[in-house]
């Protein structure tokens, strides 16, 4: 050691072990939350994708069978769902949550191995405290990454905030133009 003395205090190591168990439980809970979110976003992706394809198919069939009103409505809904898929990017969000869940589980496993193998058998008090600090830091970084990802999710492709209404305005303008085109075609 560099000028410091080794201390072997069972109380210190028990405190570190208790903190690591608390962090492990927190990581398990966070991982479960991330996996649930990943499953939810995957479900949204599949549902929106399947409905979009079904509506597109129905719209095409309706135009071939001389049902332009139904075809126009189905194609408009399909376009709306395609826009939602484009802006929401549910599969990307699902992937991000899945990766975050796996990172939480990796951290939990690292803490468990340290607590069960190294803490009481291969390190002094100072090393134990430094390791606990490092695990706490890693946990905080995962939390910050999650918050950063959530903030990024709130931005659309051009970088404008959804809350500013830019995305909503663009979607509204698109559907307004689409509706006008469909009505113009139906009047002919």
Overview of the structural elements:
- The structure is a single chain.
- 17% of the residues are buried.
- With 188 residues, the protein is an all-alpha fold.
- The protein has one domain.
- About 8% of the residues have low confidence.
- α1 packs antiparallel against α2 and α1 runs antiparallel to α3.
- The chain is rod-shaped.
- The chain is 83% helix and 0% strand.
DSSP helix count? 5
Helix content: over 70%
- Compressed to H and E, one letter per element, the order equals HHHHH
- Rg is 27 Å
Structural class: mainly alpha
The tally of strands reads 0
Q: Quote the average pLDDT.
A: 80
Q: How many structurally independent domains?
A: 1
Which stretches of 5+ consecutive residues score pLDDT under 50? Answer: 156-170
Large-scale geometry: rod-shaped
Main sheet properties: none
N/C terminus separation: 88 Å
β-strand amount:
under 5%
Summarize the structure.
The protein has 188 residues and is mostly helical.
Features:
rod-shaped, mainly alpha, 0% strand, 188 residues, 5 helices
Task: List the topology elements.
Blueprint: H1 10-64, H2 68-88, H3 90-118, H4 125-153, H5 166-187
Helix pairs in contact: 1-2, 1-3, 1-4, 2-5, 3-4
């Amino acid at each position: 050691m560099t000028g410091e003395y080794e201390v072997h205090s069972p109380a210190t190591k028990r405190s570190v072990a208790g903190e690591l168990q608390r962090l492990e439980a927190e990581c398990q809970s966070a991982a479960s939350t991330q996996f649930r979110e990943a499953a939810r976003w995957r479900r949204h992706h599949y549902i929106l994708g399947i409905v979009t394809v079904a509506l597109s198919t129905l719209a095409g069939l309706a135009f071939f069978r001389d049902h332009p009103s139904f075809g126009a409505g189905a194609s408009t809904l399909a376009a709306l769902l395609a826009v939602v898929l484009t802006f929401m990017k549910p599969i990307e969000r699902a992937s991000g949550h899945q990766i975050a869940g796996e990172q939480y589980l990796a951290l939990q496993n690292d803490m468990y191995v340290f607590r069960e193998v190294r803490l009481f058998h291969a390190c002094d008090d100072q090393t134990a405290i430094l390791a606990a600090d490092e695990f706490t830091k890693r946990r905080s970084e995962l939390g910050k990454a999650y918050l950063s990802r959530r903030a990024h999710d709130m931005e659309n492709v051009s970088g404008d905030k959804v809350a500013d209404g830019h995305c909503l305005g663009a979607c509204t303008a698109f559907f307004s133009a689409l509706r006008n085109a469909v009505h113009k075609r139906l009047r002919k």
